[in-house]
Amino acid sequence: MDETEARRALIETCARLYDRKLTVSAGGNMSVRCGDCVLITPSGRNKGLLKPEDLVKVAMDGTVISGPKPSIETRFHLALYNANPSTNAVVHVHPLYGVALTVNGRKLRCNLTPEGALLLGKVATIPYITPGTEELVEAVRANASSQVMIMDRHGTLAQGSTLEEAYNRVEELEFQARLQMLCPDAEDLPDSELAKLGVLRWRYW
Fold first, then answer.
1. If you write DSSP's letter for every residue of the chain in order, what string do you get?
2. What are phi and psi of 15, to 5 degrees?
3. Of residues 73, 165, 171, 174, which has the active-site annotation?
4. The model's pTM
5. Is 172 a catalytic residue?
């Protein structure tokens, strides 16, 4: 998509994330690849109130081309784009149930439903690391092969070939986290069913 369309699509995604309470206030950051550059949300701004012209355009090396100060987490977005040529969108949010799981010291389980197993696959877990640090960038880079990550006490991170795909992954992760909080004693799908779903995932995802 061209830059005008990319700006519009990213703003719409930010508004949807905010309306769905997948992030709050200035929390989180979202980006989309646009040619050989990246459009990313600005630092410290409410994601539900952004306009297309508020987005920051950065080069793949992090150089700001236009716009205000970019998100503090720009470097881990770029780490994922540079590691994965097929990644065209990155979404990082602070969803209530996903964060609550980690605050309670619990691991996310994605195999309670077929949709969780299909859409999320193996979710990487990153221990708590101070936001905005090089240490966090390196931890994200080390898990770049995972389409979805959950960061202890921080939030969730998803990459996708499209904005819609990245959005769907963070929404599904939050659903699974909420389901787990509501049904703490539920069992995962049996291994035989997970094997069948693995074949479907390989074919269609």
1. --HHHHHHHHHHHHHHHHHTTSS-TT--EEEEEETTEEEEPBTT--TTS--GGGPEEEETTS-EEESSPBPTTHHHHHHHHHH-TT--EEEEE--HHHHHHHHTT------SSHHHHHHH-SPEEE----TTSHHHHHHHHHTTT-SEEEETTTEEEEEESSHHHHHHHHHHHHHHHHHHHH-TTPPPPPHHHHHHHHHHHHHH-
2. -65, -40
3. 73
4. 0.93
5. no
Q: Could you read off the pLDDT tens digit of each residue along the chain, which spans 205 residues?
A: 899 999 999 999 999 999 999 998 888 999 999 999 999 999 999 999 999 999 999 999 999 999 999 999 999 999 999 999 999 999 999 999 999 999 999 999 989 999 998 888 889 999 999 999 999 999 999 999 999 999 999 999 999 999 999 999 999 999 999 999 999 999 999 999 988 887 776 555 5
Residue listed under structure tokens 């779903």? 197
Q: Is the dihedral of CA 72, 147, 38, 52 positive or negative?
A: negative
**Is-contact 29 71, C-beta < 8 A?**
yes
